[in-house]
Amino acid sequence: MSTEQSRSAREAQPAPGALLLCRAEPDAVAPVARLLREDMLIAPAGEGWSVLVPEGRPWQDGGEPVDRVLSGWALALAVGAPWPALALWWDTERAGFSLASGFRRPVGYEWLANGTPAGVDEAMHTFAGRLGLDPVLDVQSLDDLTRPDPASDARSRLRGLLAVLQRAGVDLPGGLAPGDSAELMCATARAWPHTRPAQDANRSEGDGADRHGTQEDRPGPWPWTAGPWGRVLSLAQIAAGLPLTAWGVHRRSGGWTAAGALLLAHGALGLAWAPVRPLD
Question: Domain locations in the chain?
Answer without folding.
Answer: 2-197, 214-276
